[in-house]
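Our preliminary data section would be incomplete without showing what the modeling component actually yields. Below, a chain of 523 amino acids is followed by its predicted structure, encoded as tokens that our downstream tools consume directly.
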Amino acid sequence: MENVVTDLEKAYFDSIKELKEGELVNGKVVSVTEKEVIVDVGYKSEGVISRDEFLAVDLENLGDFEVYVENVEDDEGRVVLSFKKANELKGWKKLSETNDEGDLVEGVVVRKVKGGYMVDVYGVKGFLPQSLSAFKNVKENVIGVKYNFQIVKMNKIKNNFILSRKDALRAERDVLRKKIWEEIEEGTIIKGHVKSIANFGAFIDLGGVDGLLHIGDMSWKKITHPSEIVAVGDDIDVMVLSFDKDKGKISLGLKQTTPDPWIDIDKKYLADSIVKGRVTNIQNYGVFVELEKGIEGLIHVSEISWTKKFVNLNETFAVGDAVEAKVISVEPQDRKISLSIKKLEKDPWENVEKVIELDSVINGEVSGFGEGCAYVELANGLEGIIYSEDISWTKRVNRAQELLKRGQACDFKVLGLDRDQRKVLLGIKQLKNDPWPSITEKFAVDTIIEGEVVKVANFGAFIKIDDDLEGLLFSGEIDKERMDTLKPNDKIKVKVIKIDPGVAKIGLSANLDNSAGDASVSE
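Predicted structure:
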């Protein structure tokens, strides 16, 4: 019996492991309390691990696992173990045995610390300095995110290491750059990221290599700035148009990823056909109309109206307006389609006699001015012209704007039709009878009148001698000292020395002849 007991005791003690501090042993969960996890490691007493070390661990399905022996026997006679240190020790072993400085490793950013971040790699924490993080312009939260890092320094004795995200990105880009240059071919479509925009185009990041997408290769339709098509941060598909490995240049195309809409466009839009579209751009020379995606036509300002010489396009049209027009011509080689709005209607000058009669009186509005004339928009839609000499019987008019204003509505007499210039010839003075026969009778040569100074010039002074009637007092017909003192609104007696109805001129003199007193006229 004693021999049996002795054998059992021996077997029992032989089954108990010898534990050493700092070693890894296998363990299994026996029970879990609020603060501790009790683990059987095959020792005479069970080990304890802080519950906090298993926060993200499913203890029920954990099974056998390795633990780190921190203390074989504490003050209470318990074995103190660590699950966390076991993982760190295994992780460090894996890291140190399989990686060296310069290698790329995958890690998760776990927290921000003073001067940088802590990164978990294989369960051990490495330091990522802020200067090497490349997180400065990263908008999203990086904590908990997995990245590639490069090991820039590793101390295997102290079990610590320093990482760099910046160098990892550089290494990744070098690999991608090499791959791109090895695989790139003209005509292939690849994905890119809009990196920056300039007036002449956009730079596209192809994943380590930048290519240029010129403004002319962005859209089949005409654009004025790249921002109309792309924005910084966009991910787009582009075609490789050409490349030079030696110079590191790649030319890209966006419009080339879609069929050219101008092919056979002359068969689709025939001359004299009527089309509909939307206004996309307004310039001082005309209006651009999009007929379909990538196809625009131009309505030149001269094709807006048969009758209006001056058309304010910005007042007449707005971007987005729906318009209807007639096709004048299609030039596929130049990518041009000329449109007309006025040709939707019949030319009023073909039967202008039915629209307007000579010697009739018509109302119109002054729309603009030319050299010695004013342009008038007539009530019937035609455009008229009035020359300066047809504005007044009595006033010498050099510039029509001296008496007329833009937007002024007036009655005009139709004097004639200028078919070559497509203008109705107009007059204002012809609305009244010619006053010069009575003027020459009333203000005959040598007549003395008291007039009022209207304007003083270096060659003389204009004197008002009757309603809407002025004469010119020549500087040679007045004493110089007196001439120097003349000013507007002064009263002065003058004598008529010349009268010329043909050019509406009356010459005056301040050198009065007393013998002509009988012919004086008082106001």
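Confidence is low (pLDDT under 50) at residues 10-15, 514-523. Residues 459 and 513 are 22 Å apart (CA to CA). Preliminary results of this kind motivate Aim 1 of the renewal.
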